[in-house]
Automatic annotation (TrEMBL), chains A, B:
Keywords: ATP-binding, Cytoplasm, Kinase, Lipid biosynthesis, Lipid metabolism, Magnesium, Metal-binding, Nucleotide-binding, Steroid biosynthesis, Steroid metabolism, Sterol biosynthesis, Sterol metabolism, Transferase. Its main location: cytoplasm. It is an enzyme of class 2 (transferase). Its EC number is 2.7.1.36. This is Mevalonate kinase. One of its GO terms (cellular component) is cytosol.
Length: 383, 383
């Protein structure tokens, strides 16, 4: 029995950083996915295997896992529970037994999350799990959340507690259990990130657009077709330091900074109004796209003014501007990814030329539709 | 008898564009000057000559000038009066008689202003007037105001109504008559610009720093030594169109734009507080410079967000940023000039390297001290 779950990445459309100071931000799913395929194996094989598309290949005997996790009691609760620090240590011991390539040590916490979610949801059934992803890691596109969401969905789809019609064909959404998937995924995110906001896993689970402010998330139904070019600067950044620098600047220049944050909030509010509006024709769509392009330019200026831009980001802005396309950084800034709005009238040839130019600088480009489905699953029937 | 007057150019330190919407802006003099040398000639020679350092060379017979301006009555009022449209037409006729190089046709209104100020203040005395300038024309550095101020000062210094001690040596300020110089210069600016704000001629006349808001100017005494690199993009721009675009954007995004303008106002207020503070030591100076650099970065982000930056400006910003120096556009934007703060700890070698790099792009660089003297005069005694 095999199931594949795929969960989308996310981008912040507006309001990053300001959200830390109580303002509204708007996030959206993108149609770039992390997929998790889960195949249950016969009991006799006695191992749980985890493979991914970058060459990671782990295998644990069920007996060894049971031994290490025995102090936790069994069976585990089937409702989402947090992984204690003590349990993380036990899981780390399981991972330490394997040789982890130095360059991928940052993924270790993803393996802890895997072991926690797997054993919590499926117990000790032998299986092979294959993870593949279209999302760059650590670039602010929510790759870890997409991984946790896809993993949770795949595990729940084959768990005894969830009854699924496995004869369904093709991709389908996992509506009835979406809340449960989201909660488990959040537990996984906590293992990976410590104190995630919950926005990334919610966007990945439910798809579409989410507005969030002071911890409260509101789902927005957008039917506006919207495409972005996402350019990964490949410049790593320290999100905590960037957030701290903004707070320090706010202390030094309280008047100016609070007005800047108000301006960002107004931009987030305009974004959510525009993408909820129903464009009645191409003219209306095009007018809305122009407004959004202008909002992106404004938001980028404000992000520059709070000090979170970066030379690599500015290079991308300037390059896109030569094609009269508006851009803004997305996420923490200081590197990471840049969004460039691709209005409906822009030809593929123009986009290709822009991508070629950006990639000649060493950047990595993705084109993505905005606000599509959340997590979906598909049953395969390989023996 | 010869007198030379020199008047400084100006930069906007903070608040450009926002000032149009009722916010505070801060302008400062720079130690780059336009000089006007005026030598009275013996009555027998019967001409008024105007020469400048770009090769303009005009000469009118006193008789011809009298003929054209006869309908105005004589003698002229020695208090500053506006030049009527009809008079401008008469002056234009005098200029049209001369061959004006096509490339310098934009300077014609400067010649009208010359003829108006000359005949109003000195009447029909024969003289040679030589204008030279360190200021680029049409780049937002107040070259026309510096010209009108220096010209008015030179004319007033040799007029019968102003009694000067011509035996004074070296440059001296023209304090007692500064208000009169400023008023005459404003009349000249009106001939050149139509509806000038009066800020440029006030800064050029009085020097130092001026804060202005809704038409009210307040002089600020700053003792902070401050140096800027001024880079001229050489990109011409349409100030009226830029101002109109900002207003249109404000109509489209009223919430965000009004917060952006508030942020700019807060930055202007901080600027004027900081430059009025008396730095007690180098450490304090350096802390203030850091604050100003941050304010410039913030202001630039906000100017970008209202849509008045330009690719050439962004190139300069990025180049200066490689040297960890903060910059902002000054004036209308869309080209024009960019300011880069040169903190006291920055070595001449670093500045030279930056200038070399910027000039390799085809830009033109000036280093300037901020907030120095206004108009000054000096008597020569060439026979």
């Amino acid at each position: 029995m095999e199931v594949t779950a795929r969960a989308p990445g996310k981008i912040i459309l507006a309001g990053e950083h300001a959200v830390v100071h109580g303002c509204t931000a708007v996030a959206s799913s993108i149609d770039l996915y992390t997929s998790v395929s889960l195949r249950l194996r016969s009991e006799g094989e006695g191992t749980i295997k985890l493979l991914n598309d970058t060459g990671l290949d782990f295998s644990w005997s069920i007996a060894r896992i049971k031994e290490v996790l025995s102090h936790l009691g069994s069976p585990f609760s089937s409702t989402p529970t947090s992984c204690s620090l003590e349990t993380v240590k036990s899981l780390a011991a399981l991972v330490d037994e394997k040789s982890f390539p130095e360059s991928k040590i940052g993924l270790a916490s993803g393996v802890y999350a895997f072991l926690w979610l797997y054993t919590s949801i499926l117990g000790f059934k032998p299986a092979t799990v294959i993870v593949s992803s279209e999302l760059p890691v650590g670039a602010g596109l929510g790759s870890s959340a997409a991984y946790c969401v896809a993993l949770s969905a795949a595990l729940l789809a084959l768990s005894d507690s969830v009854k699924m019609d496995v004869s369904q064909k093709g991709w389908f959404t996992f509506k009835a259990k979406a809340e449960l998937v989201n909660k488990w995924a959040f537990e996984g995110e906590k293992i990976i990130h410590g104190r995630p906001s919950g926005v990334d896993n919610s966007v990945s689970t439910f798809g579409n657009v989410i507005k969030f402010k002071t911890g409260v998330m509101t789902r927005i139904d957008s039917n506006m077709p919207l495409r972005m070019l996402i350019t990964n600067t490949k410049v790593g950044r320290d999100t905590k330091a960037l957030v701290a620098n903004v707070s320090a600047r706010k202390l030094r220049h309280p008047g100016a900074m609070s007005s800047v944050l108000n301006a960002i909030e107004a931009i987030s509010d305009e974004w959510s109004t525009i993408i909820q509006s129903h464009a009645v024709d191409d003219l209306c769509l095009s007018a809305n796209e122009e407004k959004l392009a202008e909002l992106m330019e404004m938001n980028q200026g404000l992000l520059f003014s709070i000090g979170v831009s970066h030379a690599s980001i500015e290079t991308i802005l300037q390059t896109a501007m030569e094609y009269k396309l508006a851009s803004k950084l997305t996420g923490a800034g200081g590197g990471g990814c840049v969004l460039t709005l691709l209005p409906s009238h822009v030809s593929g040839a123009v986009v290709d030329k822009l991508v070629e130019e950006l990639e000649s600088f060493g950047f990595q480009c993705f084109t993505a539709g905005i606000g599509g489905n959340g997590v979906q699953i598909s049953f395969g029937h390989s023996s």
